[in-house]
Specification:
alpha/beta, Nucleotidyltransferase, domain 5, 5-stranded mixed beta sheet, 9 helices, about 35% helix, binds zinc ion, kinase, ROK_cs, kinase activity, transferase, ROK
Amino acid sequence: MAKLMNTRAPTLLCADIGGSHMRIARVTPDLNLVERRQIATPGHDLTLFVDAFSQMVHQSPVGIEAIHLSLAGLQDPETAECNAANIPCISGIALAPLLSQKLGMTVRIANDADCFALAEARAGAGMGHDNVFGIILGTGVGGGLVQNGRLIVGRQGLTGEWGHGPLLRRGDRDYPYLACGCGQSGCLDTIGGARGLEKFHFWRCEEVRSSREIMTGWLSGEPSCQRTMEGYIDLLSDALAIMINVTGASCVPAGGGLSTVDDLIEALDRAVRKKCLCKTATPIIVKAKLGNDAGLIGASYL
Ligand SMILES: [Zn+2]
């Protein structure tokens, strides 16, 4: 399948707004990111945030008509209000209209996991698949759903949030019942990301280990790490099998820090393909291809 080109790129800037840094670049039609810039995110002062962002945009040498943002947070598609735990100054603010007015150009915003999924579906590991569910295994878990090349944002921008919704029960012998950042308890997110894995390992084996150490221990055959990883892969593959049954996704590109461990992706894929209803010899859970630039590239397709 030919690479999908973004024909709007010459007049489009893309930005990746995280809790610590904002990155901006122009995306060329062949998906090269040029004129890159990065500054610290002023997370606590809206005026500083808007000024810093505007300054980055104004440094662009070509006539920019639009800017698309991948945001470490959510945007309600009805009200345009953002919710970003790590960038408190924009929470509750309709950021796209505000920036659009200030900059005099079209501004579109989407969640960073959604931009990741869109990028992988259109130009990465999910190319050629109609139904792509992109997952982030990072500090926590996130995800985004792309069907027929189109991002499914859903009500309040929440589609693809497979890490939330109580999954575990109080008193479970195999898993801890932990409070989640979303206000509920027992969500997959309490165990599924790197911090969750560390908590789970402590709960199961009473050892304080980093997620990296747990992975290394698992791969070198340490019994405690194997015990943890067995439960971890079992739980994640349960949730992913359900997601695949519900969405019909035929490709699940995985990004985020934990996804760099090949054995983890392969183990998850094997477990998921045993559990989901659709039987296939082709891997479903695969490593993402676009790395750290997925957010910027995905934003270009908004
Ligand atoms: Zn939750």
